[in-house]
Each structure stands twice: as structure tokens, then as C-alpha cells.
Amino acid sequence: MSRPFPPDGSPRLPSTPRPLPWEPADTLTASALYEVFRAAHLVDEPIEPPDSPGTHRLLLTGDWEGAPGEVWYLPNEFGGAVAYYRLDLPDLENLDRAFVYLFTHPALRRQGAGRALLRHAAERAAAHGRMVLDGVTPADSAGDAFARSTGATLAFERARRVQELREIPPERVAEMRAEAERKATGYSLVTWTGPVPDEHAAGYAGALNAYYADAPHAEGVQPEVWDADRVRQRTGMLLRAGHLRGYSVAAVREATGEMAAITELTIDPDEPEWAYQHLTAVTRPHRGHRLGILVKTAMMQLLAETEPRLKRIRTRNGADNEHMIAVNETLGHRLTRSGPRFYEIPVTDVK
Fold first, then answer.
1. Are residues 183 and 90 in the same domain?
2. 120, 131, 211, 322 from 278: Cα distances, Å
3. pLDDT, tens digit, for every residue of 255-275?
């Protein structure tokens, strides 16, 4: 049976590195790619547990978002993998760009694997008519240093904060929610688990558009534009597959039915002590009513009932998102290690 590494456990680069395409039907190589990802994550992101194999598999295939893409890897002579990348090819906006996720086993870093794959990714991006490669890496990691060494430009970064739930007494959460409710007259809360229900798809699309309008992004990047059909077709795949549990709390303006604020997060059933914050947004016309505090405290109370093993929530914010940073810090989120850094480089500059 093939294995990721030789019998002595030491990974080796092939004598002539040549990337091979990965096909979703190749489950054995998928397992080897996961081992590369997991080893890299444990070194670069030691605070958080890695994605589960099932989640990673959907991220490889692109089935979690619906956009096309491809995966290439460097094999070794024992049938495993030592490095790989996934190339995302946006098909609705940013048609001049490709997004690359690149992972090299820590034991093989600084030996040319990452550089070989990046060159190959640039060639593949160019073949698809893309002019710019975008990528993301943990700050102050080997990947961060690698990105700088290639001449890539830092586009923006996000700060990571963690909320330790044991540090916030339930009665304090109830107090903050009650205070927010007094400021949020005329708004009602709706909650759901799993994918966005059809009846909320249009409102959710509006909240997403508000988020993307304010979110930091590289110069020249087009914000995503969502409608109800796109929400139905391109969200919730990981939840439907059962790899994650998802929770959402939204505030709706009673007079109009407009979704004014939302917060959502996911929990990996294999790591029930951690929750991961995804979208949190308050649309501009409805700011100033403490809706951010309202939906987040309601979420905390919901999780206290449904996820008794949960201990902490991780969130990431752009440094200029002062409103949401203030909300998170009010709720006890504390800055930890630096968050992800987003880089870009023209495909013609990759050497």
C-alpha cells in the first residue's frame, strides 16, 4: 500500500519535482494531502486544531463554494505527497485573478518544493487567463517569509482574537443582551441551524453585500455581489455534508422585514471545544442600535444550551473594522497571535 513517506518516516523530495494533478476519485492521495496539510497546520497554527479530513476533502474539491479550481501535488516515490496547492478560479467576479492555497510538509521546507509549486500555479493561472495570484498565509510563519521572498505584495491582514467563554459569567451575558434589546426597539431575532433557509436567503445576501462592501481587500479586487439564488447554490455545503455544525442569529427590522444584522459560526464535531466565527455584519442603515452586541449575546446563550462542551470562539477582523473590534472586545475577545496575511503577485513576476 502506498504511504505519504518512506518506511523510515523521513519525507523526501522526488529527484525531479514534477507536479501531478489530483483527481477527486483518488482517495489515497487525498489522505496524503491531508497529512501534509495537518503537519503544516500544527507548526504554523498551533493554537487551533486543524480541519477534519472530511472538511479538508471538500476544500480540496471546491464543493464547499461552487467555484471551479484544481489541485496539484508533488509526489514521492512511495505514492504519497510532500507538498500541494489548490488553485481557486473565481467565475463570477475577479476573473483576472486566481487564489492559491499552498502547503509544504514542514520537514521539506526551504528545499524548493514551494517555489516549484508556485511557479506551476502561476503557469496554470495564466493558462486560465488570470493575471494575478492571490494567497494567504499565517503571519510570522514560514509561509509568510516565503511570500515575501517571492516579491509578493502584502495586500491586507487580519487580527485574530479568541473569546474564552469561561471568563464571561452567564449573568453578564444576559445583562449585555438586555441592554442591547433596550436600544434595539423595533427589531426581532431569528435563529437557525445549518444552511440558510430559503425564506432568509435574500436577507442574508443583503447582509453579505454589506460585509463585502466594508471588508478589506486588495486594490483592484471586486467585492462579491450576492443574491438569493447565489446563497442557495454556493453556501452551506460543509453543513449539508455533516462535516460542520452551523448556527446563525439575525436581527430583522419588524416594520420592513429587512435583515439588519447577522452573526454565524461553525463547530467541527471532532473538535467541540472550538467555534469559528464567520460572517458578522450590521448593515449601514441599522447601525447605532447595538445590534452587533444583540446578535452576539443571543448566539452565546444559544451555544450555552446546544454546545455544552464549547470553550472558546475564534474570530478574525480587519485592523480598520473598529466597530466590530469594539463589539468583540466588549464580549471578552482577546488578541492572540497575528492573524492571516493576504498577498498578491502578478503571474508574470513569479520566478
1. no
2. 31, 29, 11, 17
3. 999 999 999 999 999 999 999
